[in-house]
Amino acid sequence: MRQAVLIILFIYSLPLFAQQVQRIDQYEPGTKISYFMGQCGQSVPEAEGKLTFCDAVGNLGVVIESSGLNSDGVSEMLPNYFDDTELYITRNGLSMREADGKWNNLPNPAIPTLDFNSDFSNTSEVVTGFMDSNGLLHLIVFNNPSGYEYWLFDRTAYTFEEVDLPNFQAARQIAYDEQSGNTFIMGNSGGFQRIYERIACSTARFMMLVGE
Question: 101-130 burial by CB neighbour count: b if 16+ within 10 A, else e?
Answer without folding.
Answer: eebbbbbbbbbbbeeeeeeebbbbbbbbbb
